[in-house]
Design brief:
By secondary structure, this protein is α/β, with parallel strands linked by helices. The protein has a domain at 1-65 and 221-320: TIM Barrel (Alpha-Beta Barrel). Helices cover 43% and strands 17% of the residues. The protein has an 8-stranded parallel barrel with strand order 1-2-3-4-7-8-9-11, surrounded by 7 helices. It has a two-stranded antiparallel sheet with strand order 5-6. It is globular and about 55 Å long. The termini are close together. The model has no long low-confidence stretch (mean pLDDT 96).
């Protein structure tokens, strides 16, 4: 049976508010949690962007949940620094922390002033970063000259078991490439046939037997109209292809690009329903597809209603 987790959205809520939500999620029966790592929110309407790595230490201490974070080493972050940060959390909280790595978005990474590379070059850089991080976790002294540069780096504080390095992908092409070197895959909900292609590509590319995680964007509220309006208000800036999401570089540009999207348009990307039976049925389909972990992101602002209602009437039916 899949582990069902709570997604903590740093783009939408202050760090202190998010801490209260993950504590409530654990009390309600959620078994795990994950969070985003952004410099900017996707929209001015979301209005937050706390530093995920500071928050993770507090969240791990305040709960007994496992936590993951989606990160993009290579531009905003040097991979040696991410390796050190992850090693510290994994040493303090053994077997409770994983890192997902992706090629990133200009929204967060372009702030360094460096040129934003095309996707192929970002992928190449990402794989270099993964190799550096793993070598550091193994206790090696690392010198590397490539798309990233490392000179005589070595970590002295290391966990007994290194954190899992999960690959983040939306497309089947990226998932297939990750299959050969990532410890697992994390992807997002999309049309069933596309999701099946992503999973198959990952497994065919070398990911057979590795865990597969799913982040589900949903909107649940007291009625469908509230759920729909909440999703449209908070998450319509994310209703684009992966190429668009990766290359716009300011929240206001996402807001401008999404002005014409109607509330009903968001249902292509967010599972909108006030019917807990429907929400549970969608998740049962995800479980049947073989996902090891499913992280739920309620894209509107009504987090406590979502946590309490799903904890009482959805998670028990899923065996969580």
């Amino acid at each position: 049976m899949a582990i069902i987790g709570y997604h903590a959205s740093h783009e939408q809520f202050s760090p202190s508010e998010l801490l209260s939500y993950v504590k409530a999620a654990e009390d309600a029966g959620f078994q795990a949690a994950m969070c985003s790592d952004h410099f900017y929110p996707w929209s001015e309407r979301q209005g937050q962007s706390g530093y995920a790595w500071s928050w993770l230490g507090a969240a791990l201490q305040a709960t007994t949940l496992t936590f993951g974070v989606v990160n993009a080493p290579g531009q905003r972050y040097h991979p040696a620094i991410i390796a050190q940060a992850a090693a510290t959390l994994a040493e303090m909280y053994p077997n409770r922390f994983w890192v997902a790595v992706g090629s990133g978005e200009a929204l967060s990474e372009r702030i360094t002033g460096e040129r934003w590379p095309p996707k192929a070059k970002r992928n190449e850089r990402l794989e270099e970063c993964a190799e550096v991080m793993r070598a550091l976790w193994a206790g090696e002294e690392v010198t590397h000259y490539g798309l990233i540069v490392v000179e005589q780096a070595r970590l002295y504080t290391r966990p007994a078991t290194p954190p899992m390095l999960i690959g983040a992908a939306i497309t089947a092409e990226t998932a297939g490439w990750l299959g050969g070197w990532a410890d697992g895959l994390i992807t997002v909900n999309q049309r069933r046939e596309k999701l099946e292609r992503v999973i198959k590509s990952f497994r065919d590319g070398g990911g057979q037997g590795k865990p597969v995680y799913l982040q589900v964007h949903l909107s649940y509220d007291q009625d469908r109209e509230s759920a729909l309006q909440g999703a449209h208000e908070q998450w319509r800036s994310n209703a684009f292809t992966s190429d668009v999401l990766a290359n716009l570089h300011l929240p206001r540009l996402f807001d401008e690009a999404s002005q014409a999207l109607r509330p009903e348009d968001i249902t292509e990307h967010v599972r909108v329903s006030a019917d807990l039976g429907q929400q549970r049925a969608w998740l049962e389909e995800d479980v049947a597809m073989g996902f090891d972990r499913i992280y739920l992101h309620n894209a509107n602002r009504q987090q406590m209603r979502f946590i309490e209602d799903f904890g009482a009437r959805v998670l028990p039916e899923l065996g969580a």
